[in-house]
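Give me the fold.
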Amino acid sequence: MFCAEVSEGKIRFFDPQTGKDDASNYIQSMKANRVGVIRIDNKLVNPKIMGLFITK
């Protein structure tokens, strides 16, 4: 699990469970058809990063 936020125009990935400040390498560990995305607020997943998780 990791979180993402936009800060100064850049996407920052971090892991609130471990305190790891850069969790961007988690994306390389993901396998096709085995990724889930959930938001804990009332916003939609940003379409700019949706392509990282959805393949056609």
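The first strand starts at residue 3 and ends at 7.
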